[in-house]
Amino acid sequence: MDHIYTALAETNVFQGLTAGDVADLLDGRPLRIKEYTRDEYVAYAGDTCYDMLFVIKGSVRGEMSDFSGKTLKIEDIVAPRPLAAGFVFGKNNRFPVNIIANESSTILTLPRDVLIYTLQNSRTVLQNYLNAISSRTQFLSDKIHFLSFKTIKEKIAYFLLNNMPKNSPVMVMKQTQNELADLFGVARPSLARAIAELEEEGMLRAERREITILDKEKLNKLLNY
Predict the structure, then answer these.
(1) Are 178 and 138 members of one domain?
(2) pLDDT by residue (tens digit) across 179-201?
(3) Are 160 and 137 found together in one domain?
(4) How far apart are CA 101 and CA 104, in angstroms?
(5) Which of 27, 42, 139, 152 has a Cα at 20 to 30 A from 108?
């Protein structure tokens, strides 16, 4: 179990504690560990979120589908990180999205009563947990704002303006075009076409994964900022 406590100590919920501290807090408490293979579902949207889940090894993704069946990837969650921290409590404590393994992954389940015990017995964990919930709320607020844009070019402009380095107009993309298309909920050819149009309009230059903003004011106007 030592590697489990080490992984938990590296998450934002247990930040500031050593693996030994985590072991002392959880000593004798029931924990469940399960292995998942690539593309296996960890949880389905609408499932009741009874307990706290942590990705201990590997990575998973959050996906949702609209009424037409189109899939939109919300984000990738790479170990070590908690899952759906803000949905363990509340009247409608259900997973908001499907959780699917990207690769062979290990998920630890911390029962709700163990989580409550931990929050009551560690001020550090309590503060970390509240911060984690607040951060997720802010993330979801930003995501809703992003999804409110109707055109692909608006989504590209918003994504770039919110992720560009502060002191440079050049951004090296972490995502491939396929991954960006999944993130935007569009087909890859449609995304490539929108990027090409923004290039033709002089707003940016795209070279492989490197994007250079040429006209920030025009990008802002796309968003009516």
Answers:
(1) no
(2) 888 778 788 899 999 999 999 99
(3) no
(4) 7
(5) 139
Token look-up 């949880």 returns 43
**Degrees to nearest 5, angle at CA 136 with 13 and 16:** 20
What is the residue type of 101?
A: A
CATH of the domain at 185: 1.10.10.10
Positive/negative CA dihedral, 164, 176, 132, 159: positive
Task: Please tell me the total number of residues recorded for the chain in this structure.
Answer: 225
Examine the domain organization and report whether 85 and 113 are in the same domain. yes
Residue 117 resides in a domain:
yes
Do 115 and 193 sit in the same domain of this protein? no
DSSP letters for the chain: -HHHHHHHHTSSSSTT--HHHHHHHHTT---EEEEE-TT-EEE-TT-B--SEEEEEESEEEEEEE-TT--EEEEEEEESSEEESGGGSSSTT-B-SSEEEESSSEEEEEE-HHHHHHHHHH-HHHHHHHHHHHHHHHHHHHHHHHHHT--SHHHHHHHHHHHHS-TT-SEEE-SS-HHHHHHHHTS-HHHHHHHHHHHHHTTSEEEETTEEEES-HHHHHHHTT-
Tens-place pLDDT, residues 121-153: 999 999 999 998 888 777 777 777 777 788 899
CB 99 within 8 A of CB 83: yes
What's the one-letter identity of residue 20?
Answer: G
